[in-house]
Amino acid sequence: METTGATVLPRQDRAKPAPGIDAVSNRVVEGGYAADGQPSAALFFWSHTRFLSDFTFGLHPHEGFEIISFILEGRTRHFDTGTNRWLDLRGGDAQIIRSGSGLWHREGAAEGARVFQMWFDPGFDTALRTEPSYTDHPAGQFTARPSGDALVTDQVGGDGPIRARTEGLSIRRVAVVRGARAELAVGADRFALVYVLGGEVTVNGTRATTDDTVSLGGASAMTVEAADSADVFLVSLPSQPAYQPVRGR
Q: How many structural domains comprise the chain?
């Protein structure tokens, strides 16, 4: 399997990701483009955020996109006009919002929360004709499986519980112990990014550390060698989906 061409993307750290939010956010993808300026297939937005104090977003709309959030630490909460109630999410939980024809919601995070969030275009025009929905996934729904020297948790695709409409989407969380090596198939003709949540690794021959993002550059496999115990997300999807993804919105 081909494992060449990996590069570390430029950091996009922001001390204030939005007005009124006391947080640090690393936004690797915005508007359908990665931090190196390359199109990011149907991945529209990607952010890893640490909240430094409590906050609440006011009621606001979404439409068309799928929004997947992984609560890595702490607590978040959300409210939407469909259920008309607040629901909590805690470390290890995840949520998918299929915003479809449109919905309104509020969301908040407690001080110390850490959230990894991605937005995908499932085919914007088609999505606008579907009913919106939320699905919350408690941590107990995610099961790690051994794969060589790694523990792999399917989040979306494979045995993962999150059901997304975005074509061919795969999200896996991979844990590798210090000194170990693991290889996972990605597949041909796919756009793939690896985010290092913690540790020091070599991904397809390229060194990366905590909060680095590695683009696999079209490689059909990911090889991870851990200089220190490492935790990474592997996100991949077709480089050219059957529809034209929205950009710059």
A: 2
Count of Cβ atoms closer than 10 Å to residue 145 Cβ: 11
**DSSP code per residue over 21-71:** --EEEEEEEETTEETTS-B-TTEEEEEEEEESS-EEEEEEEE-S-EEEEEE
CA distance 153 to 182: 14
Nearest CA among 236, 242, 77, 66 for reference residue 158 = 236
179 & 60 share domain? no
Written as six digits, the tokens of 99 are: 């915003």
Question: Which residue among 97, 125, 141 closes a domain?
Answer: 141
Indicate if 126 and 168 belong to the same structural domain.
Answer: no
> Could you tell me the residue range of the domain that residue 183 belongs to?
144-238
- Give the DSSP H or E segment for 126: helix 124-127
Taking the C-alpha atoms of residue 134 and residue 121, their distance in angstroms, rounded to an integer, is 16
In this structure, the answer to whether residues 190 and 231 fall within a common structural domain is yes
Cα 74 to Cα 45, 50, 53, 112: the distances in Å are: 22, 10, 12, 6
Q: What is the pLDDT along the chain (249 residues), one digit of tens a residue?
A: 555 679 999 987 776 666 677 888 888 999 999 999 999 999 999 999 999 999 888 888 999 999 999 999 999 999 887 778 888 999 999 999 999 999 898 999 999 999 999 999 999 999 999 999 989 999 999 999 998 889 999 999 999 999 999 999 999 999 999 999 989 999 999 999 999 999 999 999 999 999 999 999 989 999 999 988 999 999 999 999 999 998 875
pTM score of the predicted model: 0.93
Coil, strand or helix at 208: strand
